Amino acid sequence: MSESLARTARAAPVELYRVRDAVAGAPTLRAGGLHHRVRAGTYAPRAAWDRLKPWERYLARVHAYALVNPGALFAYESAASLLGLPLFGEPRDIHVFELGRTKSRRFGDVFVHTRTDAPDTVTLGGLTMTSASDTAVSLMRVLPAPFGLAVGDAAISPVQGGSATLDGLERVAERQANPRGRTLLFLLLATVDARSESPGESVGRSVIIWSGFEPPELQREFHAEGFTDRPDYAWQSVRAIAESDGYEKYRAETREETVRRVIREKKREDRLRRQCDAFGRWDMAAAMAVAPVVRELERLRVPRIGAPRTFLLSTMRSNSRSFPEGKHRKRDEPPSST
Q1: Is residue 142 packed enough to be buried (19+ CB in 10 Å), middle (13-18) or exposed (0-12)?
Q2: Distance between CA atoms of 196 and 254, rounded to whole angstroms?
């Protein structure tokens, strides 16, 4: 056993119903178009399903699989979804380990893995999955490098709920026998930072570093007017500050609270601008496009200190482990009954 990101696994984001549990004489879940088939024999209310974000749909699919396979050992993105580690889009497959199997195999949308070393596992809320360290290390081997960095950061970042340590990640990495992605894994282990406070911040940092720019100082404290502000990135060498924007932090239940949050952030930005010579912002979409962030760094006069390693960034645009943006498994695509 090892550490986890939470005291319990993340709950399904939508109610799930099994056909075999329907009360005799009740309207069938298959009729009327009121329910979405999550997988064979398992449905969710369509209105609620249609409101889910891609990573929430995936978490629901994992829980639907667990309903009919309660002894499953979840791994990779499936374990990450239950532990609260970052996901990027909606992963294509449910990932499980079957210890003792001699060869990995896919059954529909379920990928059954094997490995020669015993995975480090945790059981939370009745579900068993690889631990945070084991899951992070496994994903750092196979995801596009910036996404792998975000997973590694999240696993050790207290702000993101991480309870793993860099030493723990390194021990798991040394113990895993799988040679796949080993070079990338150790490059990422040398780059992870517990001060990262969001996946967007981690992806942005990967663009900065692997585009050849001077690495930023993360969450440096700036004191002014009775406030302490910690921007995402700071470069003392050129007195520059930059922020990785996530718009969810501005959204609230009421319009008035949303306005208050926007005003609060504007005042914070004004304080920071008075303490630097250049200030910039970008969001996740800009970071994944790379070029907008590079232009912003050039405008901020952040120095280049090395040659770009663009091959590490190019894979963000073609993450084969998730569905393309805006797409997911079709309702009538036969899901695995495994």
Answers
A1: middle
A2: 29
